[in-house]
Design brief:
Number of strands: 13
Largest sheet: 9 strands, mixed
Structural class: alpha+beta
Shape: elongated
Radius of gyration: 30 Å
Strand content: 15-25%
Number of helices: 10
Oligomer: single chain
Order of helices and strands: HHHEEEEHEEEEEEEHHEHEHHH
């Protein structure tokens, strides 16, 4: 399929102003994160390297920040592995995915939504955690231009959502901005283009076979089954495992994810309706808010197919859920059978003879199974009745013997 002929963003337009604003904001966030990491450096050699890098970051142009931030991330990861410094509270390669501009009647403030929070006194930027910060509810419950009214810490807050944008940041570079009524993306040659509505990111997937429309920025990619995530963004992302999915959750899905932990939540819907996305984010939400009750070791994800097992095993760590068992229903049943009935040691046969397969699929087998279950249930019923009868008879005999002893006395 031929790539679409996309219109480039022209200087002086609304789109150009939004791009400049988001680039400036990202640079400010990256510099603050770099400074925060340097302040926490504890080893002399490590500190000197970061100080030199800090000077480069502070003087760099916006377009030159990405490689410097990537180097800082590499040094930070290496230092953390060697016991030097701490792990950054946010991923500097993708620090946030949402941007709100809220006007409360007096002033406008920027609120960034991310997978982890970063709030430091005196800092010009603040990233709130979607799982915990009450203000994140505004991102999921309201659209751009809406009047909002929420209660934060028992205090009412109201205002107007002046802007609500979904931000795609890959390896420290701003790649896409989506808002009500528009979307722009950066091509490989650093040219910003406008994206048609049909190609804007949406949640997709389901049953491991959901297809995606091709990216408008380059020829259609090869079809890759079993990848839930962001539709129409393939050419912009190096990782399709929940880079932006959290940003695309809608109001109803957010309500399901953040329901109280008591009770059971049942999700129903067709392929691509977001069931897997909601379930995984709910697991992350419960774990974050009550880690002792919903620790990864106490949770299990049971799915239908092995490919989905592999996918979820890679996705959960990106939501800060590490070590949760992900298993197919068949695997769980096999494991449980061995645990409960260890005496059953039948060998598993991988290559089933064709005649056996045809026999097991025959409609008569279902009737035979039903008859067998009925006979087994009747047998269990008779044995239970006999046991109860014998127990009652024994009780009567004991009462008679006791009466005789009392009478003899």
């Amino acid at each position: 399929m031929r790539a679409l002929d996309l219109e480039e963003v022209r200087a002086g337009t609304k789109e150009a102003a939004i791009i400049d604003e988001e680039l400036t904001l990202l640079a400010k966030v990256q510099r603050q994160l770099a400074q925060d990491q340097i302040e926490d450096a504890t080893k002399a050699e490590y500190d000197q390297e970061l100080l030199a890098l800090r000077d480069q970051i502070s003087e760099a142009h916006v377009e030159d920040l990405a490689p410097l931030i990537a180097e800082m991330y590499r040094m930070q990861a290496l230092g953390a592995a060697n016991g030097k410094g701490r792990t950054l509270p946010v991923d500097v390669k993708c620090p946030y995915f949402g941007h709100l501009k809220l006007f409360d009647g007096k002033k406008t403030r920027d609120v960034l939504i991310g997978n982890r929070g970063f709030v430091k006194p005196g800092s010009e930027v603040a990233i709130v955690d979607w799982r915990n910060a009450p203000v994140s509810r505004i991102y999921y419950r309201y659209d751009e231009g809406d009047d909002y009214e929420e209660s934060f810490g028992g205090r009412a807050s109201s205002g107007v959502v002046q802007a609500r944008r979904t931000i795609s940041i890959v390896n420290g570079e701003l790649r896409r901005i989506t808002w009500t009524g528009g979307s722009v993306a950066r091509k490989g040659d650093d040219v910003w283009v406008q994206i048609p509505s049909d190609y804007r990111p949406t949640l997709g997937g389901g049953a491991g076979v959901a297809s995606r429309p091709p990216s408008p920025l380059e020829p259609a990619p090869k079809f890759e089954p079993g990848q839930l995530g962001v539709v129409g963004d393939e050419s912009l992302r190096d990782d399709k495992h929940l880079k932006e999915i959290t940003a695309l959750i809608d109001r109803r899905q957010f309500e399901l994810i953040t329901q109280p932990e008591s009770g059971i939540v049942i999700l129903q819907g067709g392929a691509g309706s977001g069931k897997t996305t909601v379930a995984l984010h709910r697991a992350a939400y419960l774990h974050f808010n009550d880690p002792s009750t919903f620790s990864p070791k106490k949770m299990a994800v049971v799915v239908k197919s092995e490919p989905l097992t592999e996918y979820i095993s890679r996705v959960l760590p990106s939501l800060d859920v590490h070590g949760t068992q992900v298993i197919t229903l068949e695997g769980w049943m096999r494991k449980t059978r061995k645990k409960v009935l260890p005496e059953l040691k039948q060998r598993t046969i991988e290559d089933v003879p064709p005649v056996v397969g045809r026999l097991k699929k025959h409609p008569a087998i279902l009737a035979l199974l039903e008859q067998g279950v009925a006979r087994e249930a009747e047998d269990i019923h008779l044995r239970l009745a006999d046991a109860v009868s014998r127990d009652r008879a024994g009780g009567v005999r004991r009462e008679v013997d006791l009466a005789r002893e009392i009478g003899a006395a």
